[in-house]
Amino acid sequence: MAPPHYEFRMRGRISRTVLDVIRTRFDHVSTPGADGTVLVVHNADQASVRALLTLLWDTGHHVLAFEEKTA
Predict the structure, then answer these.
(1) How would you class 41 by CB atoms within 10 Å of its CB: exposed for 0-12, middle for 13-18, buried for 19 or more?
(2) Which whole-number Å values give the CA distances from 69 to 2, 7, 46, 53, 60, in the listed order?
(3) What 3-state DSSP class applies to 52?
(4) What is d(CA 14, CA 32) in angstroms, rounded to the nearest whole number?
(5) Alpha-carbon distance 67 to 17, whole Å?
(6) What is the block-wise mean pLDDT of the chain (71 residues), using blocks of 10 residues?
(7) Which terminus of the chain, N or C, has less C-beta within 10 A?
(8) Which among 23, 21, 25 has a CA at the least distance from the CA of 45?
(9) How far out from the chain centre does Cα 57 lie?
(10) C-alpha–C-alpha distance, residues 15 and 18, integer Å
(11) Are 56 and 63 within 8 A, CB to CB?
(12) DSSP code of 59?
């Protein structure tokens, strides 16, 4: 069974600085959507996901939805 990955749907784009921080901490893919961004994070445990949410909120990003996905 493949490990889960997490999708964060956000309003607007992720700032370049925050995206650089995320890239150093997580395996991810960021895809701009029609009305925002979907950030997909792989290989993250619960503590890492919480830290990522805190980083996004503390830097003024609007997280609209968060979902754990399994393959």
Answers:
(1) buried
(2) 10, 7, 13, 16, 25
(3) helix
(4) 9
(5) 24
(6) 83 87 79 77 88 95 91 67
(7) N
(8) 25
(9) 11
(10) 5
(11) yes
(12) T
As a residue count, the chain comes to 71
Beta strand 36-42 with 27-32 is antiparallel
Structure tokens at 2: 């493949």
How confident is the model at residue 32, as a pLDDT?
A: 67
Residue type, 19: L
